[in-house]
């Protein structure tokens, strides 16, 4: 499981840097198909830039700032008898 709270627009002034970071995250995490990934960000275009729709999305608040927790679930392990 990976849990990330990467920089987003409010913490970085350059939106293109934020977009590039999210694209890089996707290329790294793509190589770990059995992992679950959870990303907390206020960047509303995250799924579009990350190029993958979240399994589940939760609305949260970081103080006054609305954020979303994007959940990408990995495959369930096989059931043990």
Q: What's the CATH C level?
A: Alpha Beta
Strand order of the largest sheet: 1-2-4-3
In the residues, how many domains can be counted?
A: 1
Poorly predicted runs: none
Rg result? 14 Å
Major sheet description: 4 strands, mixed
Number of strand segments: 4
Distance between the termini: 24 Å
Helix % is 10-25%
Shape: globular
**CATH H level, superfamily name:** Vaccinia Virus protein VP39
- Kindly report the average pLDDT value: 90
Provide an overview of this structure:
This protein is of the alpha+beta class and 81 residues long. The protein has one domain (2-72): Vaccinia Virus protein VP39 (Rossmann fold, 3-Layer(aba) Sandwich), CATH 3.40.50.150. Helices cover 25% and strands 28% of the residues. It has helices at 15-29, 46-50, and strands at residues 2-4, 37-41, 56-62, 65-72. It has a four-stranded mixed β-sheet, with no helix packed on it. The longest helix is centred in the first third of the chain and has 15 residues, at 15-29. The mean pLDDT is 90.
């Amino acid at each position: 499981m990976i849990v990330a709270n990467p920089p987003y627009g409010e913490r970085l002034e350059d939106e293109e840097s934020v977009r590039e970071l999210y694209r890089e995250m996707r290329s790294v995490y793509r190589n770990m198909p059995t992992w679950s990934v959870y990303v907390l960000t206020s960047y509303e275009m995250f799924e579009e830039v990350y190029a993958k729709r979240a399994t589940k999305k939760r609305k949260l608040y970081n103080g006054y700032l609305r954020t979303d927790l994007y959940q990408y679930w990995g495959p369930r392990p096989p059931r043990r008898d």
